[in-house]
Inverse folding.
């Protein structure tokens, strides 16, 4: 599928724009294939790309007490990036890592900023990315406070996410439980 069609499909739930807008937006970046375990952004560095995961999965990790904690998981047609670092152009402790062989559409920060200066749809797209990121993160926080780890796990399955490709240790930390507890949940008759 051409990148402009992928972008249009991704953004249509938020705003329907002509395919020409997405063709122009697509010309700002490139589609790149990466092997699993690729680190797209190291911790304590600055995010230099707007990243849309076309195929595969990955996550945002933070080093804490001798291991990584997964604070966000991204699947196909999700953004996979350190959005705060990208926006502020400052380093953060977040590492962005791929969990499986993946295809990513990426736009360098400097090229993305050009869309803002041209007076076209750059500001609207930026706002939509920020809103989607905020809504996703707030829903994750609500779920952490109101659902059990098993309920959150079942929700991931119901959303048809391919969670079996996520390393157990990252999925468990994302759910806020130990890998052993996640193994027990998986073993139950669900």
């Amino acid at each position: 599928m051409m990148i402009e069609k992928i972008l249009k499909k991704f953004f249509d739930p938020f705003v329907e724009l002509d395919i020409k807008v997405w063709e122009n937006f697509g010309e700002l970046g490139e589609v790149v294939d990466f092997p699993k375990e690729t680190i797209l952004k190291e911790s304590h560095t600055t995010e230099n790309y707007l990243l849309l995961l076309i195929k595969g999965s990955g996550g945002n990790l933070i080093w804490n007490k001798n291991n990584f904690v997964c604070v966000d998981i991204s699947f196909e047609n999700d953004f996979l990036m350190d959005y705060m670092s990208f926006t502020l152009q400052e380093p953060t402790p977040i590492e962005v890592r791929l969990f499986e062989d993946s295809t990513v559409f990426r736009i360098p920060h400097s090229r993305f900023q050009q869309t803002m200066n041209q007076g076209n749809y750059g500001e609207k797209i930026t706002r939509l990315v920020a809103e989607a990121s905020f809504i996703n993160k707030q829903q994750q926080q609500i779920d952490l406070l109101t659902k059990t780890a098993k309920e959150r796990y079942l929700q991931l399955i119901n959303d048809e996410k391919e969670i079996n490709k996520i390393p157990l240790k990252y999925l468990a930390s994302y759910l806020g439980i130990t890998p052993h507890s996640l193994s027990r949940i998986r073993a139950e008759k669900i």
User: Anything to note?
Assistant: The longest strand covers residues 67-74. The chain has eight helices and eight strands. The chain has a mean pLDDT of 87.
